[in-house]
Amino acid sequence: MRGIVVLVVVSMSAWLCQAADDEKSGYPTSWDHVNIDEVLGNERLVQNYAKCLLEKGTCSPEGTELKKAIPDALKTGCTKCSQKQKDGAQKVIKWLVQKKPELWKEVVEKYDPSGEYTKKYEKEYRTFVN
């Protein structure tokens, strides 16, 4: 379970990130080994991580680290993300948009209240959500 929280947060925000070919990860590579399907298939885990990210519940050390990474990932176009992290992020975002749109809306409101990143990355977002 270690590292799941971190990947979920990065995943939730990665749709806002520009694609980068740089395989060098600035975020922990342990995130690359998380089974995203397992996380998304466990409602309790999804809710716990959502509460952490939305500051409605407690966070594990990994969750705290993840919350710190999101603003950087948004600002830098996810240039520190590995390709595997980006792929996982897209999978999580697509799942949230399709299965948990209310939760997705809360996450976007929390991490992009002005809509700056939504506008900036809208084209990329549409390519993997549809």
From TrEMBL:
Lineage per the UniProt record: Eukaryota, Metazoa, Ecdysozoa, Arthropoda, Hexapoda
Annotated signal sequence range: 1-19
The protein, known as: Uncharacterized protein
Organism: Laodelphax striatellus
Chain coiled-coil ranges: none
Gene3D superfamilies referenced in this protein's UniProt entry, alphabetically: Insect odorant-binding protein A10/Ejaculatory bulb-specific protein 3 (1.10.2080.10)
Keywords carried by this UniProt record: Signal
Keyword Signal: yes
SUPFAM superfamilies for the chain: Chemosensory protein Csp2
Pfam families, A to Z: OS-D (PF03392)
Superkingdom of the source species: Eukaryota
